[in-house]
Design brief:
Layout lengths: L4 H13 L4 E9 L2 E9 L3
Antiparallel strand pairs: 1-2
Length: about 45
């Protein structure tokens, strides 16, 4: 049975809430060069 639109929205919001107050620090590198990225999820 397919989820109703409000159920889908609720599931999406709950999934996003689990990301809040989370920060990812990512370093991507190749051939001696690297780039650092910081991704943070928080409410304004």
């Amino acid at each position: 049975m397919e989820l109703q639109a409000d159920d889908k929205l609720r599931n999406t919001a709950e999934g996003f809430r689990s990301l809040l107050d989370t920060q990812y620090h990512i370093i991507i590198g190749r051939k001696g060069k690297s780039v650092e990225l910081t991704i943070e999820f928080k409410l304004p």
